[in-house]
Specification:
By secondary structure, this protein is α+β, with helices and mostly antiparallel strands. Helices cover about 15% and strands about 45% of the residues. It contains three helices and eleven strands.
Length: about 180
């Protein structure tokens, strides 16, 4: 279906939060001429980074996630600040959350996390030969544990549901290590 089928008539900001703005967009659908409101979350870009040590371990973070009210096993990541380059944000998040850094950080790709309702991109990076250079610096409302996980164990952790965060799985898929063994 071509983009021209949809005409944006107006946008109304419903609420504004630190991590997203809720907007209500009114559209006209050209084939029928009917109009309808759609909700859109306007979000800043995000980054996720896979830090792999020289020993082949992935530096992962265990932290509580309010949306599911559970602790998850994830890779470091977060929001890109205004005017910040995503690669710079990836390095910043890596250092803040884990205390690790890497000489080379390379881009693995980008995805739209949920284009049905969100307007942002998530950028994925790989930090090879990551090493601990400082203590983690969590935000005032962050609490996490750092866990080193052998890279070879990642497919099994995904297959068994121990890693269920979709963007973490996407990062490993872009890296080429997310395919679980057949059960």
């Amino acid at each position: 279906m071509p983009d021209e089928s949809w005409t944006l008539l107006e946008t109304r900001r419903v609420s504004d939060h630190k991590i997203f703005t809720v907007n209500e967009d009114r559209y006209r659908f050209a084939p029928s001429g009917k109009e309808r409101n759609f909700v859109r979350l306007s979000c800043p870009p995000w980054v996720n980074i896979i830090p792999v040590t020289a020993d082949g371990d992935v530096v992962m973070v265990r932290q509580y996630r309010h949306g599911i009210r559970k602790v998850t096993l994830e890779i470091p990541g977060g929001m890109v600040d205004p005017e910040e380059d995503p690669a710079v944000a990836a390095r910043r998040e890596l250092l803040e959350e884990t205390g690790y850094d890497a000489e080379v950080i390379r881009n693995l790709g980008e995805v739209w996390p949920n284009p049905a309702i969100q307007d942002n991109l998530c950028h994925f990076y790989l930090a090879e030969n990551a090493c601990r250079v400082a203590e983690p610096r969590p935000d005032p409302f962050e609490q996490f544990e750092i866990e080193l996980v052998p890279l070879k164990d990642i497919p099994e952790l995904i297959a068994t549901g121990k890693i269920r965060h979709s963007l973490v799985i996407t990062a490993f898929a872009l890296y080429g290590v997310a395919v679980p063994r057949n059960r």
